């Protein structure tokens, strides 16, 4: 189970202010491209599951992931998550020809979606995706991820923090944001849900 604090930043000004505040704690910046897949009959999304291929820093490396059973409330997201390395060249080929996912035999994730969700029984479709610039920071023992997510209909800004004690760490983060005048609200939908709705949160 992945548990994350998710705080949506009001706008680019809030994002830049927080970026400046966290700059002494910056460790790396990741350029992410997220591409999603489903069965022709929505076998995954109809069961609240998401299959994603994520490319890092162009095609430097690639990760296949399955996310399922999402719950998000009060700025805390909980969901089942499984990840495994994926060949970037094969990942690109799957975007052009999604059926290639069905021919990958050594993936536990793809075996699971075929067995559990009947993924691919009637075909596979690429849903498209979005790009994300993620600045990673090490702050007070926490790994903070400051995201600028670029959809073709707008840009969303968010602060994420994976945590084993989300209520304690959420309070710590909120105090920090309030003290420094960074405008924020609780995220109540996932990046994928925003992508599918084609509408930025209000």
UniProtKB/TrEMBL annotation:
InterPro entries: CYTH-like_dom_sf, CYTH_domain. It comes from Stylosanthes scabra. It holds the Pfam family CYTH. Coiled coil: none annotated. It comes from the Eukaryota. Residues 1-199 form the CYTH domain. This is CYTH domain-containing protein. Gene3D superfamilies: Hypothetical Protein Pfu-838710-001 (2.40.320.10).
């Amino acid at each position: 189970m992945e548990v994350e604090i998710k705080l949506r930043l009001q706008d680019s000004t809030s994002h830049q202010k927080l970026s400046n505040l966290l700059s002494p704690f910056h460790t790396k910046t990741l350029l992410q491209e997220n591409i999603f897949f489903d069965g022709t009959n929505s076998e995954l999304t109809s069961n609240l599951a998401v299959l994603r291929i994520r490319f890092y820093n162009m095609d430097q490396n690639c990760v296949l992931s399955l996310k399922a059973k999402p719950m998000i409330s009060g700025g805390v997201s909980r969901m089942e998550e499984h990840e495994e390395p994926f060949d970037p060249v094969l990942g690109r080929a799957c975007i052009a020809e999604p059926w290639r996912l069905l021919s990958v035999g050594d993936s536990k994730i793809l075996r699971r979606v075929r067995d559990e969700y009947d993924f691919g029984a009637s075909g596979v479709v690429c849903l498209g995706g979005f790009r994300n610039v993620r600045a990673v920071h090490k702050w007070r023992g926490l790994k903070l991820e400051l995201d600028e997510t670029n959809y073709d209909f707008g840009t969303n800004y968010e602060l994420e923090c994976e945590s084993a004690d989300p209520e304690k760490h959420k309070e710590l983060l909120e105090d920090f944001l309030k003290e420094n005048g960074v405008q924020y609200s609780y995220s109540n939908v996932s990046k994928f849900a925003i992508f599918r709705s084609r509408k930025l949160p209000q």
